[in-house]
Amino acid sequence: MDIQKTIQDLREELNQHNHNYYVLDTPTISDFEFDQKLKELQELEALHPEFFDDNSPTQRVGGSITKNFNTVVHDYRMYSLDNSYSKEDLIDWENRIQKMLGNVPLQYTCELKYDGASISITYENGRLQRAVTRGDGFQGDDVTTNIKTIKSIPLQLKGNYPERFDIRGEIILPFEGFEKMNQELIEIGETPYSNPRNTASGSLKLQDSALVAKRPLECLLYFIVGANLNIKTQFEGLEAARKWGFKVPKEAKLMASMEEVFDFINYWDTHRHNLPYETDGVVIKVNDFHQQDELGYTAKSPRWAIAYKFKAEQVSTVLDSISYQVGRTGSITPVANLKPVQLAGTIVKRASLHNADQIEKLDIRIGDTVFVEKGGEIIPKIIGVDFTKRNQHSQPTTYITHCPECNSELIRIEGEANHYCPNFYGCPPQIIGRIQHFISRKAMDIEGLGGETVALLFHNHLVKDYSDLYELTVKQILPLERMAQKSAENLVNGVQKSKEVPFDRVLYALGIRYVGETVAKKLAKHYKTIEALQNASLMDLILVDEIGEKIAQSVMEFFDNPENVKVIARLKQFGVQLELVEKFNPNATNKLESKTFVVSGVFEKFSRDELKKAIEDNGGKVGSTISAKTDFVVAGDNMGPAKLEKAQQLKVPIISEDDFLQMIN
Ligand code: AMP
Ligand code: ZN
């Protein structure tokens, strides 16, 4: 068989599955099958570097580091949009353009204004060439490597596309993915991102494209430019782009009059909250390209398009005070306490102020009248101060220098936005937060014990770290507020039962900074026991797959602390799982240790999966393509001719299933 063709077919197939999943939202194969195919392609490409293609779907996982983003001049300038805020503004705009065009009937394409970071992507002969940020409109940064990791962006186009063109769109982070990213950050004690837009635009400039690949970014396309496009209208352009494989939101509509444009605006003004991503308005574009040409551009924006901005739901109220919350990792978050006010259907009393820089930037002072807005975030935010109402005697806000809970002097690490309380072992909210994390569902999942009870136990001096939980008795906790015999028993039983929780979850429960669920699993699998992890050097840790320096450093710090070592010794003494218990398998041996097998063909005594499992159960590894690293090929009936040839060429021994059985028996 022709390897090049196999590779090409796999690439096309994977491209199509990406399209089905990320653009059409209708996957036709399981994630597992997709991963298998991707792996197959990766292995083939590794064996045949001569067929390398930087637009292969395997390149989507990222991994290359960009130190400096090159500046690139746009072939066609990227303009801004004029804004309008009322229907009168729009009627004025229509009158202006009608005057220039001579009162001809006009059609408009109405689109949503996606709130993210704009991007211009160049395609040549159907292949993605480069992607550039807007920059100042004349030139931007080349962020091609990062953009290629976004799976809704086609690397190879389909159908009948122009030879060369730029397509423009917005890189966005849908709410769901954004919330998920934040949830993960909160779980490992990091500060969550403040909004999807900044996170999306920040992602484009990350140096490590593998990090970009992990973010659930999307790209929504809205405009094509180029020479000899053979497209006559904006709407036609959108439909064509969709056919070539781009994600073009179906909300875009062709409208025959300004009346219809108003209908579109009215509809989305109320329905925009149901969209999966943020929008702050509607973009109205003259549909006909000839008319667009006639209208041309002002210094900053096209005359043929205008943005209509929805009124953000905004109110003003008085800032009563600022309080400072201390998180589980000691991170300080300032919170604005507001005079209660109605906003977007709820009563708002508090708003996030993020950090010291934010307070300084907005120059917020106690007693100020502030504007509060509800955007894509869950907690409303303060967007500015009504300076006309400022009291003459008001004083600038000075950020706290000491922890409001334990009075330790706060520290601020260079380059980080937040202040920290360094009193890890003496600061009550940090201690309580750590225990709350320890008992949480994804960690030790202790039944009968909730976050408030943890605080109660702490304040009554019954626990001072999570290992103390294991010594609690019914008699001790019964006197606590609202504690009945039954609930006290449940609590103690729940704690005892958590001794069965497997090592990887215990490791996550310890609350080591940056060690989330996935990292904990990786570390548990790699080190198998807490001692091994404890004894690992920084270098060892970094060498573990997907463990970076930041995580490794944090693990080192955790175990360098004698307090932690003591607590872990206690956990061990109480019988908490501090090593990986491999599931007992009576057939398991290590007879095949360090041997790699490739399985090909159909077998009599095993299914292929059973055979693969038997290899792994006996300590061997299963590869999917034959390479110099393969030790044996287990061949059944109908072994693929390409594999046979490869095995012979590399002199890899070919064995039957009976030979294999002899090896393990
Ligand atoms: P502004 O940044 O306010 O000047 O608005 C212009 C920007 O809106 C463009 O650079 C695009 O990034 C963005 N935008 C979002 N959605 C659209 C859309 N449907 N059509 C054109 N531009 C859009
Ligand atoms: Zn403190």
Secondary-structure map:
Elements: H1 3-23, H2 31-47, E1 71-73, E2 83-84, H3 87-101, E3 108-114, E4 117-124, E5 127-133, E6 139-141, H4 144-147, E7 164-172, H5 175-187, H6 196-204, H7 209-214, E8 218-225, H8 234-244, E9 253-255, H9 258-271, E10 279-286, H10 289-295, E11 305-309, E12 314-326, E13 332-343, E14 346-352, H11 356-362, E15 369-373, E16 381-385, E17 411-412, E18 419-420, H12 428-439, H13 451-459, H14 474-477, H15 485-497, H16 503-509, H17 517-527, H18 530-535, H19 538-543, H20 549-560, H21 562-574, E19 596-600, H22 608-617, E20 621-623, E21 632-635, H23 641-650, E22 654-655, H24 657-664
Parallel strand pairs: 2-11, 19-20, 19-21, 21-22
Antiparallel strand pairs: 1-6, 3-9, 3-10, 4-5, 4-7, 7-8, 10-11, 12-13, 12-15, 13-14, 15-16, 17-18
The chain binds adenosine monophosphate (AMP) and zinc ion.
Zinc ion is lined by residues 326, 403, 405-406, 408, 421, 423, 427.
Describe the structure.
The chain is an alpha+beta fold and 665 residues long. It has six domains: 3-61, Orthogonal Bundle (Helix Hairpins); 83-305, D-amino Acid Aminotransferase, Chain A, domain 1, CATH 3.30.470; 312-422, Nucleic acid-binding proteins (OB fold (Dihydrolipoamide Acetyltransferase, E2P)); 428-500, Orthogonal Bundle (DNA polymerase, domain 1), CATH 1.10.150; 503-574, DNA polymerase, domain 1 (Orthogonal Bundle), CATH 1.10.150.20; 596-664, Rossmann fold. Helices cover 37% and strands 18% of the residues. It contains 24 helices and 22 strands. The longest helix has 21 residues, at 3-23. It starts with a helix and ends with a helix. 32% of the residues are buried. The model has no long low-confidence stretch (mean pLDDT 91). The structure holds adenosine monophosphate and zinc ion. Adenosine monophosphate (AMP) binds at residues 80-81, 111, 113-114, 118, 134, 170, 222, 283, 307. Zinc ion binds next to loops.
